Amino acid sequence: MMGIISESDDFVYTNPNFDTEWQEAQRYIEHPNLEKRIQWTKQDWLDKVKNGKVVNFSEIENLQNISNPDEFEKLFPEKVERFIAALAKKQFELPIAVKYPNGTVELIAGNTRVTGLRNKGYDPKIWVFEL
């Protein structure tokens, strides 16, 4: 399922790897903010996340859990290197965000991609699913 999902003049975006991103999603089981805790199993995650859609960053009001684009160089060096390699190939895996029932949207996976693209002046595409 890693095919091309969205293309623009600048980049190709591929489907998120939902299996791999489960590691990021697991953090929400014991999230320190009780309002952001999600009691799910891996199968729950896979069932919910696959029903998402591609949305531009600029269309999401108050996306949470993202870094300031000016701080891109301060992110984890190995993730910054992966971003630079993806930028050179002009191909990115879609970041993933969850929309809570109260309307809050939080980035679960792909902060470096979103931050790096914003740092370079782009409006990143994000896979958004609803709980």
Helix content: 25-40%
Question: Helix count, per DSSP?
Answer: 4
Low-confidence stretches: none
The number of strands is: 7
Mean pLDDT: 91
Largest sheet: 4 strands, mixed
The gyration radius over C-alpha positions equals 14 Å
Q: List the strand order in the largest sheet.
A: 3-7-5-6
> What class, by secondary structure content?
alpha/beta
Q: What coarse outline follows from CA principal-axis ratios?
A: globular
Oligomer: single chain
* CA-CA gap between termini: 22 Å
Strand content: 15-25%
Features:
131 residues, alpha/beta, four-stranded mixed β-sheet, three-stranded mixed β-sheet, 4 helices
Topology:
Blueprint (H helix, E strand, L loop, with lengths): L3 E4 L4 E3 L3 H8 L16 H8 L3 E4 L20 H13 L1 E3 L2 E4 L5 E5 L1 H9 L5 E6 L1
Parallel strand pairs: 2-4, 5-7
Antiparallel strand pairs: 1-2, 3-7, 5-6
Helix pairs in contact: 1-2
Report on the architecture of this protein:
By secondary structure, the protein is an alpha/beta fold. 29% of the residues lie in helices and 22% in strands. It is built from four helices and seven strands; from the N terminus they run E-E-H-H-E-H-E-E-E-H-E. The strands form two sheets. A four-stranded mixed beta sheet has the order 3-7-5-6, covered by helices on one side. Strand 1 and strand 2 form a beta hairpin. Helix 1 crosses helix 2. The two termini are 22 Å apart. The model has no long low-confidence stretch (mean pLDDT 91).
